[in-house]
Every structure is written in structure tokens, then in C-alpha cells.
Amino acid sequence: MVRLPWVLLGCTLPVVNSNVISALGAVLSHGEVRGQLARLNATVGGRLYTAIPWELPCFSEYNGESVTPDEDACAAIQANYTSPFERTQHFGTYMISQWSTCQAKRPAGECLLNVSNPEDPAAFTGVDCELGDIPSYYIDVQYPTDVQAAIAFSKLTGIQLSVKNKGHDYKGRSGGKGTLALWVAHLNSISHDELFVPEGCTTSYDALTIGPGANTEDIFEYVDSINRTFIGGYHQTIGAGGGYFLGGGHSVLSPVYGLAADRVVQVKVVTPEGLYLVANECQNSDLFFSLRGGGGSAFGVVFESTHRLEPQVTLQVASIGFTGHSNTSNLAQWYSLLVNETYKWGTEGWGGHITGPALIYVTPLLSNAEANASMQATADFALSQGGTAVVEEMPSYLAFFSKYVPTAEVAVGTEITLGTRLISSELFNTTDGRAVIAKTIENVLSFTSPYVVVGTPFLYDYTPGSTSVTPAWYDSLWHLGLHGSWAWNSTAEYIADQYTAISQHIQTFRDITPGSGAYFNEGDVYEPNHTDAYWGSNYAKLLSVKQK
User: Fold this and answer.
1) Which pTM value belongs to this model?
2) Is the peptide bond before 5 cis (omega within 30 degrees of 0)?
């Protein structure tokens, strides 16, 4: 396999002019590059665009030149600044805002509003809006030939490629100043085949075929209408057929039904050498293995993926917490209680999220009476702290998702950094191990409260070697995360300190979990030995596939 340079360019490198045609590594003159851009635009049917920051209409200066603000457009942006749906409609923005900026130049090198108050004039009055780390150009991709044309252009000009979907990107891999981006968000088809047979195979599956840009909420509504369940992410606008499953993809249903990567039975993809291939267990099986957890667009640009479905399931839902009544002392008690309950909950199929002094869990395996008994001690503690506790039965995943997720999903427009660690089931299964976890959590509470995703495939019948994520996923009960954040006007030094602090604090969880791993899509930017953390024993095979 010919290797294409998918790695993104640094945001401090120069551009030619206001049209931001990158001169980086180009093997042609600037005029020749412009000519090639014109030919590329003709090849893709006029769907090659110059990228601009979404927030630009609010500013009077762009990349050092005067521009005229558009008050009506600015007002619309301000009104929808924290809407994930609105952000998916615009190329020049991300759900996590720092990835549209050049962080090394902050508070310059950006074009952001104040997410806490988008109408705050201090963010845009007399401020130079800069392209930051947003790619220079993008193709609104509709066909495999669009990607093939972009690859040919990249090889000819030396301009590198990036791939952007819905903008749910914690690590900034879908940006890159000076790159030509492939925007796949509008590849959003959804279709069902209850007897889907992967090409060249004989086994059939009840399956859903989706484009990379199909929103999770749209998918959940579609499968609910046909009495099915799709294993997907915890946000309304995740592109479930893109980087989500390519990096592994956890769900609150993963403890029973597996990661998103486990559910995929076929992928259609344009590879870095420009081939449009079908990958499944029966053909291009090494590529299929690599796409199921290898991460991002490392092995190609996905056009569609087919995922196994489950029948519609009845869920027991627990929503328990004492938000507004927490302090360091009762948080430590709370986490200790949760740690002590976790192994039992794992055997009962519970999955969900712990956000400081609150949890939302679901299980398809228990009756309502069993669920209430399982959560009794946790409910009692929350109530004793002035909190609330609800354990209810819901008829489908969509019913749960619609009620609980829109108010609980991660906010967009913010700037955050993450560090994560998979906490092994072995540690939860001993008194000493549980004490170590609880103490390690207590030690970080003065800095931040861990955000815990209970989305590891603990009960899933996993076939070793079938996916390329680290095998640690299948022997863990928690995917624990720490996060740091900052404001739109923070300095580069403060931002760097946040990245460093998160890396240092998550190290304490690495120390108690030797041999475990982390989540590729939500890892520490300074993750040590990242190949082992993200892929473990699968890395050698991934590397060999990449080098073909």
C-alpha cells in the first residue's frame, strides 16, 4: 500500500496570500498550484471551496486585512454558537474549538467568540480573525472519484490532505493549516437490509449501511422505526460511520453488545493509493482489521460502513446524583462507593457515564425490580446528600436517548483537553485494587472530577484479533477521563499548562494500570508509548498493513 502523508501540517507555517494556497512542500510553482486547483475544482464538479472560519461575519479584520462584518449572519452565529447541529453545517468550525486555532499564537491565531457569552464584543471588536489551523481548501465530497482526484492533486503538488466529518474531534486530527480537506459530512445515507451479505461472503446479517456523515440521532430514530437497536455514541451529531468507529467507538450499550468497531461487517473505502475497495472478512481482510480501530483516516477515506443491528431492547435506566450539593469530601465517598459497586454492575450489563456527582446508567439485562435492587446503595447515598435517584424502565434506546442525552452530552464550542485510561476489571475485583482506584481518584479531586465512560465491552463475546483496538478494552470496566479547559482569550502558556497538567494527572492512573491502554479518539496529547496504549499487541499487524 502506497503511503500518503495524512499527518497534518503545523499551524505556524506560512501561506502564500489571502487565498491561503499553501506553499508547504509544494513541488510546483504557486501559479502552477493555482492552475492545478482550478483543474481539481472542475474535476469535482465545482465543489472545491476556500475555507473560512465560521465566526468570520462577526469580525472587521481577517488575516490582517479589513473586511466588512455581516451583522445578520453574525447574530445567527451568536444565537446558535453552542448548537451541535448548526456546527455540523459549516466546514470552518469544530465541536471543540481550539482545533480551529493556532494554539501556539494564542490569544492571536484564532477566530472565536466567547462561548460563555457569544455576544461579548471583546472577542471580535478590533480583533484580527485568523484562519488558524483550519485547512486552506476543502472538497464537499460526494463520490469516490472526488477523493481519488484529491489524492492525485496531493501527489502532484505536495499539498497534504486532511479529512473532516462532523467535527467531533478531541485531538485536532481533522484540521491542519495548509492542507486540502475532504469534507465527508454530507455522505449521510442510511439504509437497512435484514439479510445483508458482505461481498464475497455467505453469512447474512441484520444490518444498517450508513455514510460517514449520518448523525447518531438520525440513525437512532430510523432504527427505532423498524424496531431495531444501533450501537452508537452519546451525542446527537456524531458521524457514526466515520472516525467514531475507526477509533473503536464506545457506547453505553457496549458492555453487552461491543464497541462500534466490533459491529462493523463491511467498509467501502478509498485507500491512500486511490483505490476504491470493499473490505470485510472475506476480501481485503487485513484492511478490514485495520479499519476496525486503526484510527481516523490512517488507512483511507470511508464512504460507507455496514453495522450489525440488535432487536429493539427494553432498558432499565438509572439517573442518580447530587449535583449542586457536592464537595471534595462527599465526592470522594461517592467515587469510592461506585468503585466498590462496579464489578457487580459489570456482570449485570450496566453501561453509562459518571460525571462528577451524577451518573446515568442503562442495562438491557435486568428487570426493573432487579435494577432498583442493584442501584439501592447508590441511590441511598445520593439521597442522603440532598440528591435525587430515579430507576425507570424505558421501551427502547431512542426513548432513553431522547430523554437523557441532549441534556447530558458534552457541550460544544468549548476548549478542552482530555487524558484517558482503561481501568482493568482485575483491579476492580479485589479489595486492594478497589482501594487503590478510590485513593487515586481522591488524589485528583482537588484538580478535577473524573469523567467515567462505562462503555467497555466487558460481557461482549469478543474474537481476539478481530479488531485493531487494544485488547485492554475487552478486559476493562471503566474508561476514565480527566479534562482541563480554558477560555477563548487564554494565552498559549496557560493552554500549554492545561495540556501538561492533564498528562501529569492521568499518569497516576497509568501507574496503577500497567499493561492497560487508552482510547485513540480521546487520548492524552502527550500519551507515552501511544502505540501500545491505543493498539497494544495489535500494533505490529497494523504497522505491517500500513507498510504494504
Assistant:
1) 0.94
2) no
